[in-house]
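User: Here's a structure from my thesis project, written as structure tokens. My advisor, Dr. K., wants to see whether a designed sequence matches the one we expressed. Can you design one independently, without my sequence as a hint?
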């Protein structure tokens, strides 16, 4: 029932948006250079999809950058969480700092990264990893800090060493929030990388958006916007499924 209601709400919003879009473009209230007509956008989408390489190659570049960024963010975030989480003093000292930094508009650092690493993939991976790092670090830190001390004490009395404690007690206890944070990290990394490609890129979905925008090709611009939105939604759904299955597997 809830899913049906959500689908109805989303469908209604989409329908209203499309109707408003058609009315604005058909009436001439908005110039075509600012807002392309839906049929023109569909035509451009059809043209792009009829040449799969034109779509799959940029998507592949963006997904590769986002995957590497997530891997870097996950490793760095988990290490940070496990290093700080067990210490009450460490949590009090560093959690407010990490939380504050996560709220900053870190994209302003991209020009520095581009100047240092170039406009290729390394700078995109760096800014994507930076955005993905904070949700993983915060979730891991909090989850490790909240692990039942009684379980740790019991494991120690049974002779468990530090590595055994981490793998057999702490890891299962923190797996669900950490895996959930990776889904957020993936979304943030992907969106940030697309934005970075738009600012100064040589390939990827964001670069295609920038090329269409600079060429004043409004139908192509909106077509790539649709592709970017679809890519983000599909990746989010796929990653949600993977993380859900992974969480269930760990719990078993």
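Assistant: Designed independently from the structure alone:
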């Amino acid at each position: 029932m809830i899913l049906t209601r959500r689908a109805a709400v989303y469908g209604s919003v989409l329908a209203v948006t499309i109707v408003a879009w058609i009315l604005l473009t058909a009436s001439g209230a908005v110039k075509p250079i600012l807002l392309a007509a839906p049929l023109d956008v569909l035509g451009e989408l059809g043209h792009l999809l009829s040449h799969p390489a034109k779509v799959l190659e940029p998507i592949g570049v963006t997904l590769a950058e986002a995957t590497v960024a997530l891997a870097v963010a996950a490793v760095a975030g988990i290490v940070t969480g496990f290093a700080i989480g067990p210490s009450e003093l460490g949590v009090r000292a560093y959690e407010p700092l990490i939380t504050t930094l996560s709220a900053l508009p870190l994209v302003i650092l991209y020009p520095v990264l581009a100047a240092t690493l170039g406009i290729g993939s390394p700078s995109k991976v760096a800014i994507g990893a930076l955005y993905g790092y904070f949700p993983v670090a915060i979730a891991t830190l909090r989850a490790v800090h909240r692990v039942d001390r009684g379980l740790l004490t019991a494991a120690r009395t049974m002779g468990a060493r530090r590595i055994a404690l981490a793998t057999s007690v702490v890891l299962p206890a923190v797996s669900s929030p950490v895996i959930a944070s990776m889904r957020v990290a993936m979304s943030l990394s992907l969106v940030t990388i697309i934005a970075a490609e738009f600012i100064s890129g040589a390939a990827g979905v964001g670069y295609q958006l920038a090329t269409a925008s600079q060429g004043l090709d409004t139908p192509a611009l909106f077509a790539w916007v649709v592709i970017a939105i679809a890519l983000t939604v599909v990746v989010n759904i796929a990653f949600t499924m993977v993380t859900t299955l992974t969480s269930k597997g760990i719990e078993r």
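When you compare it with your expressed construct, this may help: The chain has a mean pLDDT of 82.
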